[in-house]
């Protein structure tokens, strides 16, 4: 009981007692139910170790007392955090504006729900993804675009954290989920060239938080090799002036579109490594009073939902982002549960989808 004074209506001090309740504990449940603290712990964490009757009585007592298990204590008992982490490839303001990343998260989240885990989104900490990994309270990690020689790999290995990469570098030490980015870009660039386009601007992806000195296996470089290979087949060489770099947001796509339209010689086709950037370019053209594809063709990559909603609909590479997230999460949970992976490296199919945004010349 806690006493304190307040004034009555006559201005005189009066004492009033207020009962301070405390949060019920396992000890309280044990006392009320007649079972040991160990049995109470088993009822919440491992019911198979006590009888069904004992478990039911303990849980009923806990409910009567208003007991809610402390998740931190429970996780400590289980030696698990019951959460997996998704390392955002860029700062939050960029990562969550990219519908492709959101679809990957959707796929991961569905699997987390199936296993009763939460999903923790982990952006770079103080601009360092390594610092974020060191302090992440998770049982495993999924990354995007990670390569095996990166510093964060050694941090995860030191922490004994299982990990899977999406759009990363296949390696014996690192399970991965990918498409053949180089071949996909070769095929869509060949489609652009077959449509008669030669004045082309490419919009590349910016390097993400996992960028390392050895960038030749990064997604932007794989895709660029595919574009260059297709152009070389018709005797074209990609010039530096033909390549622009954008963050994967619609806002930055509009900025890039305006930059392209400000050129003295407007390209006949823009080929973007991201649908959301390509859509931004289309909007910039519409704002300038230009028609797509009559005044300029635009091609993207990802086949996000918005690519079939924009007018005209976007020609693109269909890569199943939700399926990438699902496969990566399923593989990670098998690793967490000490199960054998069916396949360390999963390369899933893509499709080239031609729509109205690409016009033959």
TrEMBL record:
UniProt entry keywords in alphabetical sequence: DNA-binding, Transcription, Transcription regulation
A GO MF term: DNA binding
Signal sequence region: none
Matches recorded under PROSITE patterns: HTH_LACI_2
Keyword Cell cycle set for record: no
SUPFAM superfamilies the UniProt entry points to: lambda repressor-like DNA-binding domains, Periplasmic binding protein-like I
Pfam families assigned: LacI, Peripla_BP_3
Keyword presence, Isomerase: no
Domain HTH lacI-type: 24-78
Protein name per its UniProtKB record: LacI family DNA-binding transcriptional regulator
Organism of origin: Sphaerochaeta associata
């Amino acid at each position: 009981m806690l006493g304190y004074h307040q004034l009555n209506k006559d201005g005189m001090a009066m004492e009033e007692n207020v009962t301070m309740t405390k949060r019920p504990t396992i000890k309280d449940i044990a006392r009320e139910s007649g079972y040991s603290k160990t049995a109470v712990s088993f009822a919440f964490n491992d019911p198979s170790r006590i009888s069904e009757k004992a478990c039911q009585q303990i849980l009923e007592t806990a409910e009567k007392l208003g007991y809610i298990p402390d998740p931190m204590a429970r996780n400590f008992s289980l030696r698990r955090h019951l959460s997996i982490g998704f390392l955002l490839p860029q700062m939050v303001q960029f990562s969550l504006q990219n519908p492709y990343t959101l679809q990957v998260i959707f796929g991961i989240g569905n699997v987390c729900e199936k296993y009763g885990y939460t999903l923790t989104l982990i952006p770079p900490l103080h601009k360092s993804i390594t610092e974020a990994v060191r302090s992440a309270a998770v049982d495993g990690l999924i990354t995007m675009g990670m390569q095996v020689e990166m510093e964060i790999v050694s941090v995860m290995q030191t922490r004994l954290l299982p990990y899977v990469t999406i759009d990363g570098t296949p390696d014996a030490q690192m399970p991965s989920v990918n498409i053949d980015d180089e071949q996909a870009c070769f095929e869509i660039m060949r489609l652009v060239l077959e449509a008669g386009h030669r004045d082309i601007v490419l919009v590349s992806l910016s390097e993400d938080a996992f960028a390392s000195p050895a960038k030749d296996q990064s997604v932007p470089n794989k895709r660029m090799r595919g574009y260059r290979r297709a152009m070389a087949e018709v005797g074209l060489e990609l010039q530096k002036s033909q390549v622009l770099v954008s963050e994967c947001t619609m806002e930055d796509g509009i900025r890039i579109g305006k930059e392209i339209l400000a050129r003295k010689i407007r390209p006949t086709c823009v080929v973007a490594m991201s649908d959301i950037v390509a859509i931004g370019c289309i909007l910039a053209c519409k704002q300038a009073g230009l028609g797509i594809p009559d005044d300029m063709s635009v091609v993207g990559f990802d086949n996000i939902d918005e690519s079939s909603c924009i007018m005209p609909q976007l020609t693109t590479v269909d890569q199943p982002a939700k399926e990438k997230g699902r496969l990566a999460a399923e593989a990670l949970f098998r690793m967490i549960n000490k199960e054998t992976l069916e396949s360390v490296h999963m390369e899933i199919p893509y499709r080239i989808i031609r729509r109205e945004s690409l016009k033959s010349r």
